[in-house]
TrEMBL record:
Signal peptide positions (record): 1-24
Region described as Disordered: spans on this chain: 267-292
Organism listed in the record: Vreelandella gomseomensis
OmpA-like domain boundaries: 177-292
Identification of the protein by name: OmpA family protein
Composition bias type Basic and acidic residues, residue spans: 277-292
Keywords attached to this entry: Cell outer membrane, Membrane, Signal
Length: 292
């Protein structure tokens, strides 16, 4: 067999083999664009393909050269073959794309409003993005559920941040305050024989005021009650002064004055006996009720 024929046959066989390697590399790239180049098969690496290309190119160059320039033809062919082989098996896979908003940790639907960093907008800053927030505009600091709606622990229809009675039993009908009836403001007490609020009473009223501010459509009546010690008129005046003291304090905490009415009942509506110290303590109270 002639030299040229042998060289061409060897070169052709090697070309077929190199083409197969390159094709395999391309398929692997398409199947897993995110995989690292180190995960490719050994025969798919540019060095191996370059080496095979060198052999192919050298064989072809040798086979197609005249007797006088065989060495030159083989050298040129080897160089060209090495370059072509390395290029055929080069890792041309695209770099994996960074997620749109890594801190979000989920898919962002097309068309969702995003900020300058590509993260979905959360206009009320409740932790639930606008595109799935069922209750947009929740006041700052209000605890919400997965839909972005304020929590309602007792499921009475009045969210916790407005509910003056947050532990109403299931199924009990409530008013706009979240209470079945008027509610006794526990621990709202006064200095002895006066309408001056204690520091503990002011702390309790701070929470009452916050919930009323967040419930702007409801009006309330603040009711003052006393025990039976003293004259009827004295107790009536004292209960009125105490109800007004509570109203003034709530107004100082942001509750509109025209949403509140102060009314004293004196000793007229006891809820316990006035014959014992414990009973009289229960009767000295302030109640909050809906004012229609």
């Amino acid at each position: 067999m002639k030299k040229s024929t042998t060289g061409l046959l060897i070169g052709s066989a090697l070309v077929v083999g190199l083409s197969g390697c390159a094709s395999s590399a391309s398929q692997s790239s398409g199947q897993s664009q995110a995989s690292a180049s180190g995960d490719r098969s050994w025969y798919q690496h540019p060095f191996v393909c370059g080496l095979a290309g060198s052999v192919i190119g050298g064989s072809v160059g040798y086979a197609t050269s005249s007797s006088s320039d065989e060495d030159t033809g083989a050298a040129v062919g080897a160089t060209a073959g090495a370059t072509i082989g390395a290029m055929l098996c080069a890792d041309n896979r695209p770099e994996p794309e960074e997620p749109q908003c890594p801190s979000f940790g989920g898919d962002i639907p097309a068309g969702a409003a995003v900020d300058a960093e590509g993260c979905p907008l959360d206009s009320d800053n409740d932790g639930v993005p606008d595109f799935r927030d069922q209750c947009p505009g929740t006041p700052a600091g209000v605890a919400v559920d997965a839909d972005g709606c304020p929590l309602d622990s007792d499921n009475d229809g009045v969210p916790n941040y407005r509910d003056q009675c947050p532990n109403t039993p299931a199924g009990v009908e409530v008013n706009s305050l979240g209470c079945p009836d008027s509610v006794v403001l526990r621990e709202v007490n006064f200095e002895f024989d006066s309408a001056q609020l204690t520091s503990e009473a002011r702390n309790v009223l701070n929470g009452v005021a916050e919930r009323l501010v967040n419930n702007p459509d409801v009006r309330v009546r603040i009711e003052g009650h006393t025990d039976s010690v003293g004259s009827n008129q004295y107790n009536m005046d004292l209960s009125q002064a105490r109800a007004e003291s509570v109203t003034e304090y709530l107004a100082s905490r942001g509750v509109d004055s025209d949403r509140m009415m102060a009314q004293g009942f004196g000793e007229e509506q006891p809820i316990a006996t006035n014959e014992t110290a414990e009973g009289r303590a229960e009767n000295r109270r302030v109640e909050l009720d809906e004012w229609n």
